[in-house]
From TrEMBL:
Name used for this protein in its record: Amidohydrolase-related domain-containing protein
Keywords carried by this UniProt record: Hydrolase
Gene3D superfamilies per record: Metal-dependent hydrolases (3.20.20.140), Urease, subunit C, domain 1 (2.30.40.10)
Organism of this sequence: Candidatus Marsarchaeota G1 archaeon BE_D
InterPro entries linked: Amidohydro-rel, Metal-dep_hydrolase_composite, Metal_Hydrolase, MTA/SAH_deaminase
Domain Amidohydrolase-related: 56-404
Tagged with keyword Hydrolase: yes
GO-annotated molecular function: hydrolase activity, acting on carbon-nitrogen (but not peptide) bonds
Amino acid sequence: MTAILLKGASIVYDTYTGKQLCNLNVYIEDGLIQEITEKSTGFKSDYVVECNKKAVLPGLANTHTHLAMTLFRGLADDLPLREWLEKRIWPLERKLKREHALVASKLGLIELVKAGVTAFADNYFFEDALVEATKSVGLRALVCPPIFDGEFEEHTLSHVSNLVLSQRCDALVKWGFGPHSIYSCKKETLEQIGALSKEHEIRVTIHLAETRWSQVLCEKSFGKRETDLLEECGLLSPRTLASHAVWVTKQEIRKLANYEVSVSFCPVSNMKLAEGGVAPVPELLKEGVRVSFGTDGAASNNSLSVLETIKIGLLLIKHSRWDPTLLKPHEALLIATKNGYEALGFPKHALQTGNAADVITLDLRTPSVICHRSVPLPNRIVYAPVATVDVIVSGKPIMINGKILTIDEEEAKQEFTKALEDF
Ligand SMILES: [Zn+2]
């Protein structure tokens, strides 16, 4: 295993504890953080990464995306969700082939790496291609092939469960079920997924209460709220990661908390599709729900940057509540790292000896983050753009000094540009 020394880091910021320390060396070997110390030890390293004027942090988690949608970025802007989905996205998706998904996932992965994301949840077509791309780049992923009733033949429950149950999860890639939503799956299908998830201890991602329309439809069809329907189908558990949760009541929030369901907050996607409501993040957090951040796919954001989503999410919460004291940058970074990793089922990556070495460095010379020394690091990097310089996942160097080492970035961009011509 590669041994890496992050040498002389100007700032080491542990998002888990909020501790900010200066001028330290971080030693990484066997996939773990071995030591964080002021002095140089006899540690032999394959890579010495100079970290003067860099901040070292745990990697960010993007807990809701559809990575291969990078192909459709910009092709369905400025439309409401149903029109966006039914008139633009689904017809495009019918033309999607495995080779498209492979190159589109690679581009998405490059974007994630450059945004300091070390782990993500994906829910899209041709997930085997996504896994191939993810393994070549080296990030962690929770991969949940979508399940529909009626829309897509390859994505019925029987197809997806055969695929998921035949896959092996490893330290970097885990497989789960991705029932799209309550409105695109029958109740019996949701019940079967609930039973399979429990029996095989498999994670589930689902779009929950994304729009007021889907809640109204659920009440009309079943006489109950979406969260109550999921409970009835056995789909509320610590294995469930629900995306959006914009239109949830206090009673639903308590239920999500009681069942230890994780929620992915996707403010940019919600605002771009003009869904009207704002996910009740302060209440979700207060009740103890594990909230994290998701960008959603590139066709509804259009960026995969978690830091950008954090900024917009914090501003949205503050603005809509007339309360600038709500959700501070250090809390946002805690939930974007610790909560995100827990929601995806990945190991603790706090910057402490013995934890998973999923580490990023950020460039403190980025003009927008050069501030007075009294400004805490979280405020500097959350409220203004910052460049990611190095990315290490499970002790493996993925990007060093801005250069991705695991795949050929230029080649991936060329292949992607070519694939765009097919749509
Ligand atoms: Zn989504």
